[in-house]
Write a structure and sequence with these properties.
Number of strands: 29
Distance between the termini: 64 Å
Oligomer: single chain
Strand content: 15-25%
Strand order of the largest sheet: 7-10-11-12-13-14-15-16
Bound molecules: 4-O-methyl-alpha-D-glucopyranuronic acid
Structural class: alpha/beta
Largest sheet: 8 strands, parallel, barrel
């Protein structure tokens, strides 16, 4: 057995028991949990004793080791790993060429002909020869072997029969990459799953085990490129003395067929190259890029290429010298071309100092305005990397018009897996459902009547481009479960599956993920699938319905609610809500003209208020609050209702999850419950803040009388306070009644005398969990201590605001008239054990 293989199997053996015993989330969808019942019986019958690898590449060895690992986990059997075709039943892993040599008589009947089978494809096929049954994993290249092996294991894990298997799959597009926004100091921009797995203290980490394990997760989805540093790039990555650091990371990813990609800074020729210019049209600059690329490729010959953010959010770019994006892209791409490298040039270019008073200004226009006229001017190894929508990963945006506007330029779609505007690591939001809407959206871009969905455009299928595809911004980190919570792993899974095959449905992806991650119990599957598949709409309902975008603190942490943060500044995420109406007029007739950037068939629908889908109405039109939607509601009533529905839906997730207690392992049950309970509280914070803001702005009351009236709610500032002091909260809607109480003493109390009927109640204490200390709370009813907790969540604020506002819910509390309910707060650090209100809710 080759030594590399022994090493790989050794590692697999070591990590196997951990995977089975500790459900930390580390193994994500590659748990290989023991099969049971019929699935086990079926797999035991069809899985032979041998897995033969005919290929000797490191990637081939990863494939074989993975099969051994997976079968051991699922069947409790250790297959023999061999290096040639055995004379017994076996799983055989080999390239088409290797199989042809070892078993010339086998006819794999590759439908499109072996020579034309696209790179990274695979074929799974049962072959019967000389009375033996071989399950063949064949591919044109080693990556295909790996992807085929993972597909085989996925089938087994999902209980699908292997006998007679006959299937071939090819990736939909050539680019299936992830971008990590990791800084060299170990922090991650918009990362919510811990510190960088790649970097610490300006260097590659000593221990890169996590990098290899991440490579394995990516490979299991068919992802073959990973940029390892922030697109807000540190120029240092191209210094000659830094190359060994990158080379070490490349080495850790290589056995999984994942190529390193680097984010580079356009100013590098000047900032680290010793030139006095970075003008892309200067010979010296071109020569510098060439020598930088030559140096990096001599250290890492399989580097995928570069990703470049230029002239955006303070990054330097070609505008410094009055040059175009094509000039900038081509000078870098020409340095990469001799090495087969690609340049992913980001289409996320916009002016963040726009005059908000000018109603014709519009950030959404920027990508198209910057790139459309340059179509055809980019070299063949340049790919324009375009965010799914024209703004910036908001909860609802139309597909970027740029997808339909590039005919002679390669493109890739950029999707954000890390949940920057989507509740970060704290809210459940299954993004494949949202991505599918964009990928399937027909841009009407072709010259015939055939549909031209975004997925086909970015894959280069419509205009016959040779490269193109999918890029996901992932930002996985050192947290045990990679993403900061278990459920968000489904977004990485979904991104990878869609990058491989964007025709998959969101429902199928959710179901695969749930079964691989939580097992195949039908109640568990149904519950989790249902939660995942409704979660985007739910989140949209309480954070920004009707195309309002995410009504978050866009100049701050992008997490808590702040309706006005997008207005009266140059960032251009305007929704233009005032006392009369709401929405951006982006029409060609009276607005910014953005809608005119779409092809006529799309523009017609968007331009007409009657035809425009309600979900995008306020993104595309400015309307009075009394405008009636297609469903018959007024805009203002829809805003109220959707917020209540959203908050109620999350309460429903909590109840649904609680029913899974006996069916999910203890640790993940507890951690997901904690996340959902927190989210339910936050959804109410959002609900109350947004609905109160719009009630105040519009002057129109909620027809159902809910907004501003909260039965059973007792404001902390009205309770009997000892040492607690009343504070105005600066965004009035961030605290119920606009006020909170904070404790500047060693301990403070807030007391209320209950006067309602006797019965069982749930008590909700709304408090503020800032990140500058850990306060402690105790809740007493009479002399009895009912609950105590610490305010120790990691939320991105030091202030009393909607981000720190957090709910503690205590159910099953018996109350009688006259009972004294007392909250005692003990500050910790700079955090002052602040309270917003207590709510007393009768139990259902
Ligand atoms: C890496 C948004 C994010 C930034 C990010 C930028 C980008 O603006 O808030 O953190 O920067 O997008 O995609 O470049």
């Amino acid at each position: 057995m080759p030594s590399k293989l022994i090493a790989a199997l050794g590692l697999a053996c070591l990590s196997w028991p951990i995977a089975l015993t500790a459900e930390t989330g580390y193994d994500a969808w590659l748990r290989y949990a023991p099969l049971e019942g019929a699935a086990l019986a079926q797999a035991r019958q069809s899985i032979p004793a041998v897995v033969a690898l005919l290929d000797d590449s490191p990637v081939g060895h990863s494939a074989q080791a993975e099969i051994v690992r997976g079968i051991r986990g699922m069947l409790g059997r250790t297959m023999r790993a061999e290096g040639s075709l055995p004379t017994e039943n076996a799983i055989v892993v080999g390239t088409l060429e290797e199989i042809r040599r070892a078993a010339p008589g086998w006819r794999l009947e590759i439908p499109v002909g072996a020579a034309s089978l696209p790179a990274n494809s695979y074929r799974l096929r049962t072959v019967t020869a000389n009375g033996r049954v071989y399950t063949v994993v064949a591919a044109p290249d080693a990556r295909g072997l790996l992807y085929g092996s993972f597909a085989l294991l996925r089938k087994i894990a999902l209980g699908q029969a292997l006998a007679g298997v006959d299937e071939s799959q090819s990736p939909y597009a050539s680019i299936r990459w992830v971008n990590q926004w990791d800084n060299l100091d170990g922090s991650i921009e918009r990362g919510y799953g811990g510190r960088s797995i790649f970097w610490e203290g300006g260097k590659a980490r000593e221990d890169l085990t996590r990098v290899a394990d991440y490579g394995r997760l990516l490979a299991s989805l068919g992802i073959d490129g990973c940029s390892i540093n922030n697109v807000n790039a540190n120029p240092k990555v191209l210094s000659p003395d830094f190359l060994p650091q990158i080379a070490r990371i490349a080495e850790a990813l290589r056995p999984w067929g994942v190529r390193v990609v680097l984010a580079v800074d356009f100013g590098s020729p000047k900032s680290i190259g010793g030139l006095d210019t970075f003008d892309p049209l200067e010979e010296r600059v071109a020569a510098w890029w060439k020598s930088a690329a030559d140096a990096i490729y001599s250290a890492i010959p399989d580097l995928g290429g570069f990703v470049l953010k230029a002239d955006s959010e303070g990054r330097v770019g070609p505008s410094t010298y009055g040059r175009t994006h094509a000039d900038a892209a081509n000078v870098v791409a020409r340095a990469l071309a001799p090495h087969g490298g690609l340049l992913l040039y980001r289409g996320f270019v916009y002016d963040h100092h726009m005059d908000w008073r000018n109603l014709k200004n519009d950030r959404a226009r920027a990508a198209y305005d910057n790139f459309h006229d340059l179509d055809g001017k980019f070299d063949d190894n340049v790919v324009i990397q375009i965010k799914n929508g024209p703004i910036d990963f908001q909860v609802r945006e139309p597909a970027s018009p740029l997808f339909g506007a590039l005919e002679k330029t390669n493109q890739a779609i950029e999707l954000q897996v890390t949940q920057e505007y989507m509740g970060q690591a704290h809210h459940l939001v299954f993004l494949p459902a949202m991505w599918k809407e964009t990928l399937d959206f027909d841009m009407h871009a072709g010259n015939s009547t055939s549909p031209t969905p975004v997925k086909a455009l970015v894959a280069g299928r419509v205009f016959h481009r040779t490269v193109g595809g999918f890029v996901g911004v992932v930002n996985a980190g050192l947290d045990e479960n990679w993403m900061g919570n278990h459920m968000s792993q489904a977004n990485l899974y979904g991104f990878g599956r869609l990058a491989w095959d964007p025709d998959l449905s969101a429902a199928r992806i959710a179901d695969e993920w749930t079964r691989l991650t939580f097992g195949s119990d039908p109640t568990v599957d149904k519950t989790i699938d249902q939660m995942q598949l409704t979660s985007w709409r739910t989140y949209e309902n309480y954070t920004g319905p009707l195309g309002l975008q995410t009504l978050t603190d866009i100049t701050g942490n992008h997490y808590g609610v702040n309706v006005e943060a997008s207005e009266r500044n140059g960032w251009g995420q305007w929704h233009r809500a005032d006392d009369k109406g709401v929405g951006m007029d982006r029409t060609a007739a009276t607005g910014t003209g953005y809608i005119g950037q779409y092809r006529p068939a799309v523009a017609r629908v968007f331009e007409s208020m009657a035809a425009c889908p309600d979900d995008l109405l306020l993104f595309l039109h400015h309307v009075p609050y009394t405008h009636v939607l297609h469903d018959g509601k007024t805009v203002i009533q829809y805003i109220y209702d959707s917020h209540y529905e959203g908050a109620e839906a999350v309460e429903g997730y909590v109840r649904a999850w609680q029913r899974l207690k006996p069916l999910v392992d203890e640790r993940r049950y507890r951690e997901v419950l904690d996340q959902l309970e927190y989210q339910a509280g936050q959804a109410e914070v959002w609900r109350d803040a947004v609905t109160n803001w719009f009630a105040r702005a519009s002057g129109i009351a909620d027809a159902k009388g809910r907004v501003g009236h909260y039965a059973g709610r007792f404001e902390a500032e009205r309770l009997a306070l000892e040492r607690y002091a009343v504070r105005d909260v600066t965004l009035a809607e961030d605290a119920s009644g606009g006020q909170a109480v904070a404790c500047a003493a060693a301990t403070c109390t807030a007391t209320l005398r209950y006067q309602g009927p006797s019965g069982w109640y749930t008590l909700r204490v709304e408090y503020f969990d800032q990140n500058d200390g850990v306060s402690h709370y105790r809740l007493w009813v009479g002399k009895q201590l009912i609950d105590e907790w610490a305010a120790d969540r990691k939320l991105p604020t030091r202030r009393l605001d909607s981000t720190s506002s957090t709910r503690r819910q205590i159910s099953g509390v018996a109350l009688r008239p006259g009972d004294e309910i007392r909250v005692e707060g003990v500050p910790g650090g700079a955090e002052q054990a602040a309270l917003d209100y207590i709510e007393i809710v009768p139990e259902r």
